[in-house]
Amino acid sequence: MRRNGFKLAGAGAGLPAARAFTLLELLAVVAVVAILAALLLPALARARGKAAALSCLGNQRQLILACLAYADDFNDALPYNLGADEIRRQVARQRYWNWCSSVLNWELDPANTNTVLLTEGGLGPYVAREPRVYRCPRDFALSDLQAKAGWPHRVRSVSMNAMVGNAGQYTRTGENANNPDYVQFFKVGQIPDPSRIFVLIEEHPDSINDGYFLNKPDSLEWTDLPASYHNGAANMTFADGHAETRRWRFASTRPPARPDASLLPRKVPHGERGDFDWLMERTSVDGEAHGR
Fold it and tell me: What is d(CA 157, CA 139) in angstroms, rounded to the nearest whole number?
């Protein structure tokens, strides 16, 4: 065919014939993609986990700075750190004095999702009433009942050292009835080495209820258990304002983050007391040695 004096080539003329992949080549491509995915997915998972851990650590830093700001406003006094029964009585009177007023469980109790119990009163005003700082981004632990109800998560992952702050009925005599041989720190200035006493810690979802993290140093028994959301580690903050990540050495300290996983209270297994001792050394100081 000619147009304007030029001959037009037929469709495909002069072009090499298209060549399809063979089955062997397709299989080779699939194998390479699978190998790349196997190499990249764990790295992506680690990156996401590291980002979540850093976000959680940032949340804890905000909370410890809020504690110290609270103390500045209240003559060096640390926030109220009450037990579950006293928190419920206060909330029934619409008094939100505790550092946080949520009491968690595995039931369909509204306190599990009510962010007002975190942000109203207590430390709430010192974190701009932002509820997300109270929860680890990796904490999605729910009971079957809660999951079936469509809950995405509970609202809190963090608790306060029971030996820090005013524990109400437990400390009316000036010492903690739960740990009478150890010093209760009502004020920041009472802590002999603020870099050694922790204030806030991620708590295992099976033991977290009130925000009162209690263990008795002389008992060799976990009453409350630290969390291990970050590759076997927990984030925590100290009375001098610094935050750190503590990796737990023993599997007995790291049960899965699910209901009925911790079976508390639980004895510290023989030969596995290193995690317990490390945390107890950072909980309080011996009252007699401290001259109380």
Answer: 7
Give the residue among 104, 45, 71, 101 at the shortest CA–CA distance from 259.
Answer: 104
pTM reported for the whole predicted model: 0.83
Q: Which residues contact 210 (CB under 8 A, 6 or more apart)?
A: 82, 83, 84, 87, 103, 159
Summarize pLDDT for 177-214 with one digit per residue, the tens.
999 999 999 999 999 999 999 999 999 999 999 999 99
Using alpha carbons, select from 129, 196, 201 the residue that is nearest to residue 159.
Answer: 201
Torsion of CA 261, 267, 272, 273, to 10 degrees: 120
CA 122 to chain centre: 19
Q: For 68-107, what is each residue's pLDDT tens digit?
A: 999 999 999 999 999 999 999 999 999 999 999 999 999 9
Answer yes or no: are the C-beta atoms of 160 and 101 closer than 8 Å.
Answer: no
Domains of the chain, by residue range, sit at 23-280
Alpha-carbon distance 41 to 101, whole Å? 40
Contact of 67 with 77, CB cutoff 8 Å? no
Decide the pairing of beta strands 198-202 and 212-213.
unpaired
